[in-house]
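quick one before i forget lol
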Amino acid sequence: MAFETGVATSISDLWTKLRTFAINSLGWTLLGNTGTAPISTYLTSVSGKKFGFGYYDTTSLANTIHTCTVTGYTDGVAMSAQPGTSYAGTKSTRTGAITFPLTAYWFFGGPDYLHFVVEDVPGEFWHGGVGVLDKTHAFTDGDYSTGTTWDMGSNLGQVVSTGHNLPFSPSCQSAATIGTLRVNGTITSMSSNTGTNSTGSLPFAVTSPYYPPYLYNDFVGRTLLFPIYVYSHLLRCIIGVPFNMATCGLKYFGGKGVVVLGADTWYLFPFRKYRDADNPSTAVMNSGPYGFAYRRVN
């Protein structure tokens, strides 16, 4: 089974269930666990890609899940010291802070990806995960780590300013990275749309760091599902898409929903919190009528 839904009572409980899902449902291999901050586990996917999952239950990063790509595992050392790690402390891929106990969680996975969605406060969502892109041409790596944070202070509608971001979003105002991608041995940031090694994604807008999720055109807004195309400045081209994940419009659902398209079942969730207006309000935490969709694979 590559799908699971349930509840978690704490950040450690959610982390344990993610690890168990990866091993028991996806066939991933456990490399080891460390007790150093963040408390973390390291796993190898079916094709041999290596990822880390960690969590904090204290400090200012309490109740956050941290993910990274690695090239190996060293017992007993911190996530920031693992071989080839993309983790760099507070400026790394993280999801949360999450409120417990949860309303629900959903895990979606396959041989080389694990995506998770968390609804903590009813109607409010977090997204995160790791995986290997479904690549458009031959290049090495393609493994990614990505997540959601939301800490806007009074600017509650500004979903990608001041270093806070959405999975696979290309815009970011600060050096914090809410998504990393390994391409031909180089770790790049999915939170930057400038620089020779940066990456970005369509259909997210790259011209406005304040008010995505503006989508590129009206067609996308009228299309139920739209692939997330990941672009790399390193290779100067679109390099792939995440498996079984898409952006979606939620106007006809009023928030989360489930839709069956032929033989496929897709689960739809707001990026953060649903609002029917295309223009997110800076006074009310929301992500407008747009969200992410995940295909259930059994």
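fyi Residues 153-164, 172-176, 205-217 have pLDDT under 50 and may be disordered.
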